[in-house]
Amino acid sequence: MDDTALPHSTALHPAVPAPRLWRPKAKTGLVSWLTTVDHKRIGIMYGLFALFFLLVGGLEAILIRTQLAVPNNTLLTAHEYNMLFTMHGTTMIFLAVMPLSSALFNFIMPLQIGARDVAFPRLNAFSLWAFVAGAIILNIGWFLKAGAPAGGWFGYSPLTSREFNPGSPIDLWVMGLQILGVASVAASLNFIVTIINMRAPGLKMMRLPVFTWMTLVTSFLIVLSFPAITIALVELMMDRLFGTNFFNVAKGGMPILWQHLFWVFGHPEVYILILPAMGVVSEIIPTFSRKPLFGYPVVVFSGVFIGFIGFGVWSHHMFTTGLGTMATAAFALSTMIISVPTGVKIFNWIGTMWNGHLRMKAPMLFALAFIWMFMIGGFSGVMHSAAPADAQQHDSYFVIAHFHYVLIGGSLFSLLAAIVYWFPLIFGKITSDRWGKIAFWVIFVGFNTTFFPMHFLGLDGMPRRTFTYDTNMGWNTPNLISSIGAYMLAIGIAIYMSHLIYAYFKGPKAPRDPWDARTLEWSLAAPIPEYNYAVIPTVHDRDTWWYEKQHKEEIARERKAHASEEAAHGGIHMPFPSYYPFLACVGLLVGGLGVAAVPFGHKLVVAIIGLVIALIGIYLWALEGNEGYHLHPSKEELES
Amino acid sequence: MTSHSSTHAAGDDSHSEPGRVKLFVIIALILGIITALEIGVLFMPVIDPVRIAMLVVFSIVKFALVIFIFMHLKWDRLFCTLLFLMGLSLASGTVTILIHVFKVKDSVPLTSHASITAPAQLDAVSRTA
Amino acid sequence: MSNHSTAVTADPHLDPTTSTGIPNKKLLLWAFLASDCMFFGCLISTHLIYRLHPAPDNIDPTKVFNLWLTSGSTFVLLMSSLMMALAVNFIQKGRIVAMRWALAITIFFGLIFLGCQFYEFHNFVYEHGMTITGSIFGTTFFTLTGTHGIHVLIGVIWLTSMLIYSFSDRFSKADAIDIESMGLYWHFVDIVWIVIFTVVYLLEFVR
């Protein structure tokens, strides 16, 4: 972010000046990153944290697979194994895939709608740092004597009650998830307002790029599903801290209630993980097929429909708990229904490629693999919807195979595609297509080698969450193959990461629009100035940038008119960076650790200190106001 | 806020200040009266289903009066109403489904009052679910 | 966008007309309230599920509830909603002094409600021996109404902060959107209580 426009900037002088609050001045360096409110920088930080945790979660997975490679292995103890699978699941879902989607929402979505930032830039910074605070609380157990959480990513009651899990790890898990929930909800509220209210002129809802549409649907899912787990976690925390009876059977509590509340959140969460991926694929496939997306409205409405029905299927995670015939039948039915719009989307992607001029670049390979792998995961998913079959598959490796096919083969493949696809725009460098393809093939083969045998392991009866198995169960060979595949997958990810790092430092400079793409963000040349668009674009078509490329003269005339209009209004308004969202999150971190990790007797004191810090942050944040300064882009910038 | 004028341009009646204030006071009075009626219902000599229905209707009326008048939904863009009703309907749906799932015989815990005092009632419960 | 002075508001770039015409803050609040519906929905579900299957040692709620106290505090909360609606109306007309009075009365009513709740809890614990740990009914009742009480408390703190801020010379009619957003939150706390009053209190006396 070099600020070529800065010399032209003028500070804004409101009639009554704001009180003299401490305002960050730095434009580069650490403080500038900690205090930034620029959605692009926030997006990059989300992405870096997410990739870091992807590697952490991957390391945990490698340890798990090493332990299971041979029967009766003693590499890990049962408790260590419990910690690893708990943290692997929690990390991958909340600290890798969700923030990676969030990174793309932050960076790409405002560009796609022709906005200069999100609606509430400081709230956006708060979301990022709250996410980091939650991530620290979740993972800090590794460095404490009591160890990391070991109750499974679902934290089923009564496993998590103080009676069976007396130490701090579960408290860390609860507070970590609680704060991550705050972060996700704050970010999603921000995205909802941004997409609905800050679209460029002419950008009607039915012209939004599909990725932005899926950002919107995902944000609604987050906003409406996270309260369920918030309540569940509050109840669990009350049980653990104050001895209430929510899940205490002795006093009439029902542990099954936890499962319901958890999956009321947990199933929409599955769609929170996959819908952004579908959005990404709906961008990549048209670009590399050089055709508009086939059946745009159907793709959009399928996404909305999936989001809505996603709230009515949660009990299919609980078929074996004895819901009664009626509920089982109803949830089986709704689960079968939800596979229909998903199937529709797959036909749309195939229809987009039909008769297209396909270009098999690395992002396209990942996107195609997404369709195929996600379909395999979908097929086993439909199998689960049949309750009698599910009773056999429940808690077996078959389920593991299923959800890794949708989470890695689905979400992760598409996110890896997205990173390569948008890399030239984000970092201004071109990645090596050759090494991208090599990484793809190693990841693809490694992934299938790891997870395909698990289908058979599951059908052969190998249960989930067992830290080892006996020699005579007939599970030896598939487990060994699977572990070899896991190492291959790790090598693939290593190649992938290396080719990104190499491109960042040594790669050739990216031209504008390297893929000959279709959506608005590609009209910008990297590095993108902090105000994104020197002139707010006017949208004439669904594939805005494609239209602009075909109607250059018309667009140039229009831009000129708009530029002089904006200059007359006083230039581009930019918000000041701020310390206070970061400060508020420091308060969250201290408070969260106070509740979770500090021994009884001191909890209250530390929690109150955290609360006070957070309150100070929030009050100063409110008092400093959203004042900013004005930028006047130079003539070259206006014409670029 | 510049957009304010446009937001309220949709308002039809009671745009003048005394009109709006008067309306708010009347609504508050109605809310107070309904609350008194709700207490009255508890002492009415009618069968329980009728009383339950009345209480539910009263509560919905109060709810609607507050969101449409006090919270300005009546004068705001329709989108605000839809946004809120989406959350409200999902929440009500979730509450309804959860309660029905827990009404089923299999869900009644062995420690509960019902299964200890009157096991026969359970069949009735599961039939109604 | 709390602190627009008039000079800044005249600048269209500080407050660009939004795509829908709904101010950003209002939209944020409505989306948040939609989310909060799920929040209280799950909490109320928990309470109702445990009312469906009461443990044998549960207290009979009709013996501990003080109907007159609760309906009184319900009335007070409804009236505070009226004052809040008036405060929003006043600031939109630029009548800052009238708005201050309306806000002050809203806060006063909010405090009365909290006082009633404190008295009620105190009464339940010390007169009836109903504690949050003693029975499942105590657990769900205190958690549900307590969570609502915390919402009221946050509202009172927000209102008080805004009342104090309204004496600053930075405060103007342009801040009406902040008062209005705060009002939406306050009314929401009120409608949650309307539901709790019926579901948790009144329906107990019917069955």
Automatic annotation (TrEMBL), chain A:
Keywords: Cell membrane, Copper, Electron transport, Heme, Iron, Membrane, Metal-binding, Oxidoreductase, Respiratory chain, Translocase, Transmembrane, Transmembrane helix, Transport. The chain crosses the membrane at residues 44-64, 84-111, 123-144, 172-198, 210-234, 261-281, 293-314, 326-350, 362-383, 403-426, 438-459, 479-505, 579-598, 604-623. CDD domains: Ubiquinol_Oxidase_I. One of its GO terms (molecular function) is heme binding. Pathway: Energy metabolism; oxidative phosphorylation. The keyword Transport applies. It is an enzyme of class 7 (translocase). Gene3D superfamilies: 1.10.287.70, Cytochrome c oxidase-like, subunit I domain (1.20.210.10). It catalyses: 4 Fe(II)-[cytochrome c] + O2 + 8 H(+)(in) = 4 Fe(III)-[cytochrome c] + 2 H2O + 4 H(+)(out). This is cytochrome-c oxidase. Its EC number is 7.1.1.9. GO terms for cellular component: plasma membrane. It is a multi-pass membrane protein. It is found in: Cell membrane. Residues 27-540 form the Cytochrome oxidase subunit I profile domain. The gene is ctaD_2. PROSITE patterns: COX1, COX1_CUB. GO terms for biological process: electron transport coupled proton transport; oxidative phosphorylation; respiratory electron transport chain.
From TrEMBL, chain B:
The chain crosses the membrane at residues 23-46, 52-71, 78-102. GO terms for cellular component: plasma membrane. Keywords: Cell membrane, Membrane, Transmembrane, Transmembrane helix. This is Uncharacterized protein. It is found in: Cell membrane. It holds the Pfam family COX4_pro. InterPro entries: Cyt_c_oxidase_su4_prok (IPR005171). Its main location: membrane.
From TrEMBL, chain C:
Keywords: Cell membrane, Membrane, Oxidoreductase, Translocase, Transmembrane, Transmembrane helix. Its EC number is 7.1.1.9. The chain crosses the membrane at residues 27-50, 65-89, 101-121, 141-164, 184-203. Its main location: membrane. Pfam families: COX3. The keyword Oxidoreductase applies. The keyword Transmembrane helix applies. GO terms for cellular component: plasma membrane. It comes from mine drainage metagenome. Belongs to the cytochrome c oxidase subunit 3 family. One of its GO terms (molecular function) is cytochrome-c oxidase activity. Residues 1-205 form the Heme-copper oxidase subunit III family profile domain. This is cytochrome-c oxidase. It is found in: Cell membrane. One of its GO terms (biological process) is aerobic electron transport chain. It is a multi-pass membrane protein. The lineage of its organism: unclassified sequences, metagenomes, ecological metagenomes.
